Description:
Structural class: mainly alpha
Order of helices and strands: HHHHHHHEEHHHHHHH
Radius of gyration: 20 Å
Largest sheet: 2 strands, antiparallel
Number of strands: 2
Strand order of the largest sheet: 1-2
Amino acid sequence: MSTAPHRLASVDALRGCTVAAMLLVNDPGDWGHVYVPLDHSVWNGCTPTDLIFPVFLFVVGVSVALAMLPRLEQGVVPRPLIHAALWRALRILALGVAINLLAWLLMPGAHLRFPGVLQRIGVCFAGVALFAIYTKPRTQWAAIVLLLIGYAALLCWGGSLAPWTNITSRADSAVFGRFVYLIDPATGRGHDPEGLLGTLPSLATALLGLRAGCWLRQGQRKTLLIAGLVALVVGVLWSLWQPFNKNLWTPSFVLWCAGWSMLALLAFHVLVDRYGWPALGRRFGINAIAAYAGSELMQIVLPALGWQEPLYQHVFAKPLTPLVGAYMASLAYALAFVMVWWLIVYALDRRRWYLRL
């Protein structure tokens, strides 16, 4: 097993395809016309779109295994590593809050939200880095089991898993007040899909990525395959008790997504690293934060300037709807959005400019 830290093109490609998928599902031309696989489940269930963020968090754990563990094996002192990791996590979290603040200031009708995607990425990155540096594999597995079983028990103790009344939504309302993603106008209760308690099972997702990254470093492809299949089966069985639910990040959802993540990691590794297939998505992957944060800023600026709706109507909706229908016109806008950002990350890569938060 090599101890030299290095990048695997397959991991960059998987991360990049995940970011591109994020942009695709986050930026339709018309939210009233979105194909079902390209939208989140309303509550229980799991669409392909629901898999995207868990796969990204899983890859965060894989990346920690590939970047940090070799340096520890070379004798690098843990303290500078953990200082760097925590400082990076704080910058990612602060960027997420800043984007939410900008949306509140510029977008008509927007309200301020404290949790968010980048905030959860930052917290999970810090957590998985601490586990990678200070604990052994057995402790990491114990933490995964404890997080999943403990969170399942917490959900049961909280009573209903229904919207607004479940314990995670009640906790978000208690901690963040009205500064969350959604507010129930009838009751004033809040809910955030990236809220406080849901970060616990999200950390389990990242830790499963850490263990998968270790198997990848050790060339244990068969283990990765078997673990992925087992996670899928256990996830399905668990869903008979606590259903798949991205908003609550239920344990069944963690295992279901981790299973697909492991199989995707294995497929990318075999095809890209071993058989030399093109690393499609790599440019998104090596500038993942820049692409995601930049796209979020574009989502804010275009509506704030009053440009988004005229752009969609005149370039996509009016010409395309009579020919291919409203759903395809909305998808065409999303595809064009992704292509614009592919051109941006392509140009950044050509100039070797990389955003390192």
